Inverse folding.
């Protein structure tokens, strides 16, 4: 079977149009993928902003916690000093009372 020049040209045009249609479909697919990727990036940028904000807040909370611990530590030191003073006063008072009792017994 022998094809005429016109048939060959028609086949070439048909094949060319088919390839162009295929490329157009693939370009549509690529465009859809690019839009999807763009949406993911946009969504993730919000998440990254949220994460960054949470990290900043956590850092501030840690600084506040360190200050609270330092304050509690200083208060504990003061309380220990006060306790030691009261123990000293108690011991001195006890010695004085015991001395007075012993002195009064000796005088009897």
């Amino acid at each position: 079977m022998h094809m005429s020049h016109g048939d060959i040209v028609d086949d070439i045009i048909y094949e060319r149009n088919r390839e162009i249609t295929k490329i157009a479909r693939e370009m549509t697919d690529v465009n859809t993928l690019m839009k999807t990727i763009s949406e993911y990036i946009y969504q993730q940028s919000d998440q990254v902003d949220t994460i960054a904000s949470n990290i900043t807040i956590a850092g501030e909370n840690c600084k506040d916690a360190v200050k609270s611990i330092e304050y509690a530590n200083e208060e504990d030191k003061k309380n220990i000093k006060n306790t030691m003073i009261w123990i000293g006063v108690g011991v001195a008072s006890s010695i004085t009372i015991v001395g007075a009792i012993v002195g009064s017994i000796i005088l009897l």
User: Anything to note?
Assistant: The radius of gyration is 46 Å. The mean pLDDT is 84. The CA atoms of residues 17 and 23 lie 10 Å apart. Residues 5-107 form the longest helix (103 residues).
